[in-house]
Amino acid sequence: DMYKIAVIPGDGIGKEVMEATLHVLESSNVDFEYSFADAGDEYAEKTGIPLSEETVNLVKQSQACLFGAAGETAADVIVKLRKELDLYVNLRPVKSYPGTKYLFEGLDFVIVRENTEGLYSGLEEYTQDGATATRVITKAASERICKFAFEYAEKTARSKVTAVHKANVLKKTDGVFKDSFYKVAENFSHIETDDRYVDATAMFFITQPQMFDVVVTTNLYGDILSDEGAGLVGGLGLIPSANIGETNGLFEPVHGSAPDIAGKGLANPSAMILSAVLMLEYLDEYDEARRLENALLKVLDEGKVVTKDLGGESSTMEMAEEVRSKLEAL
Ligand code: NAI
Ligand code: MG
């Protein structure tokens, strides 16, 4: 298969980790046809806007998009792409890789966050006394995110999906979410289900994170728990994310353009490489996703050819070269 991929390197280390990742992907057994586009701060300096309509259309016409990082304009760029492409899923793995600084060994779960409504619906207004935000939870959006979570569990051979909510206090909004979860669960009777309160979940992430497999939740809870999950496995240079819709997916590291280290070859390419792993999963190329992840795992575990943030002395491209040679040997 030949996949059409839009590539937006962006600003700062976004360009460096993208170059590194595309270099590794050259040794993949899957073929990609790339279309490159600029977006972000540098693009805005030249044109006055951080993201053009042509680029939005290019991403729409592609099967998936690899995004590096933008600088100050990141929110505009990503928010616009999420809206235009209706990327309703935000997916973040929490995995502890040998050779890296994690808090628990053997962690391997994913957080599936609803990305379009909830408390981030954009309905905020001042009142006489202060301000009010409206939290919108619809059955349609709740069912679609829960369905995604179950299907993802099925495809990636995971056995349990946990809904996270606070339906004891937010009886109506989180009640709709919880009911939607159990309605969808009926179609996946072979997958174990449970549900937990968000406050208790925040505690269990720290005390017993091994209990989680797939966690599905609403927008704000997912935002907070995702960063808590990142803290469990440590290091911005290691954490990928996926934004997924019905017809498109955008894959990006969680880190930004890191102006403090940009242009020096110091950036850890792992988060971008792992974003490509998520893209391969999205394209249903599971064998290839595991191969790429395992190649990176070997390099991290050996710890010899790694970047400074991982305790090594290698450059971004040296580390990428090492991942590529491991990939070729697998
Ligand atoms: P940042 O993630 O760029 O950097 C935070 C710290 O982590 C820095 O010390 C940086 O050197 C380090 N770091 C990040 N990624 C690394 C990697 N791959 N390897 C080694 N070290 C790494 O976040 P910061 O400093 O808050 O923001 C810098 C710029 O990035 C801002 O303009 C911000 O708006 C933008 N940003 C963009 C995002 C995006 O494009 N999705 C996300 C977050 C921030
Ligand atoms: Mg966040």
TrEMBL record:
InterPro entries documented for this protein: IsoCit/isopropylmalate_DH_CS (IPR019818), IsoPropMal-DH-like_dom (IPR024084)
GO molecular function: 3-isopropylmalate dehydrogenase activity; isocitrate dehydrogenase (NAD+) activity; magnesium ion binding; NAD binding
Record EC number: 1.1.1.85
Essential cofactor(s): Mg(2+)
Pfam families cross-referenced by the UniProt entry: Iso_dh
Signal peptide: none
Keywords for this protein: Magnesium, Metal-binding, NAD, Oxidoreductase
Residue runs in coiled coils: none
Keyword flag Isomerase: no
Keyword Oxidoreductase: yes
Protein family according to the UniProt entry: Belongs to the isocitrate and isopropylmalate dehydrogenases family.
Protein name: 3-isopropylmalate dehydrogenase
